Amino acid sequence: MSKIIVLGAGLVGSAIAIDLSKNHKVTSTDINTDSFKKFKNFPEINTVKADLSSSDTIKSLVENYDLVIGAVPGNMGYNTMKAVIEAKKNMVDISFMPEDFLELNGLAKKHNVSIVADCGVAPGMGNIILGHHNKKMHVKRYECLVGGLPVVREWPYEYKAVFSPIDVIEEYTRPARYIQNYEMITKEALSDPELIHFDGVGTLESWNSDGLRSLMQTMKNIPDMIEKTLRYPGCVEYLRVLRESGFFSYDEIEVNGSKIRPIDLTAKLLFPKWELKPGEEDYTIMRIVIEGIENGTEKKYIYKLLDRFDKETNTISMARTTGYTCTAVANLMLENGFNIPGVSAPETVGEQDGNLGYIIKYLEERGVIYNILND
Distance from the CA of 66 to the CA of which of 73, 194, 206, 242 falls in 20 to 30 A? Predict the structure, then answer.
């Protein structure tokens, strides 16, 4: 039985801790002790209040553990990962940091540790799937459409956030990059909206987001790659209005003699509206299309995911689809199924024979089902 420490006890971090506690000794850490209430039925999970913004605190916390899970807000992700590497500990991370985590690859190799970053649903599972197929075929096109949404469409936003509100807002402001004919195309976020029908859900709206991340560096052999975010129709318009009005700006403005960043005010106002309340249900939808040449023949693979809130365990879908991908890779690492020194993107995990099958089986055992079509 391995000893694992989970840094961050939010909705996803807590689901990760609970899942891992079935087979490992788990400690959960967070500055907010209210987060530990989720563990009232899991007394085997040890809890520690800690300020995870301190590198020295992190290094001290992780010292006696076999594996570290990073589930902190994105703006803390890079420094957290750096501290874990300097503590010479292996790690699986889901923090979706704005920085390029591959910049820490040299440091991780120096300390001979294995780190898997961006290991959620998207980025994460999508990368693992593409990494697997990129080793088996000449991929010509990759498309990922993905979104997490509340079951009940509640005015005015028809959206609920399970991550840090500023991390969510980053999706609406960070320029969206995708690959077209081997060239990187950059457009503003929320661009090229398109209405698409999905069985079991209905019509959703897709738009360009900056979700490819490491794939743009590791998959330069693929001529066309794009990821688009899914929301309920009409979402793009009001987000554009907020963005263009300055509500998502990081530049300080003066209000009655005080300086504030508009994004801080916006996050403060929106989070109560976006927060999933106890009992509110969500779902995660993803469709991945991979086209190319396999064994001399044109081939298309389609992966479809429609995962819903688990009423039995009271676990939100985004925590399941994100968290269980992370815990699958964590178990894979502990079983020596992946131990490449350095910082690896999740597609590197998928490149190794057997890993995608292991992860899909792990997810199926937890009710997260990917339906796979190919022709």
Answer: 73
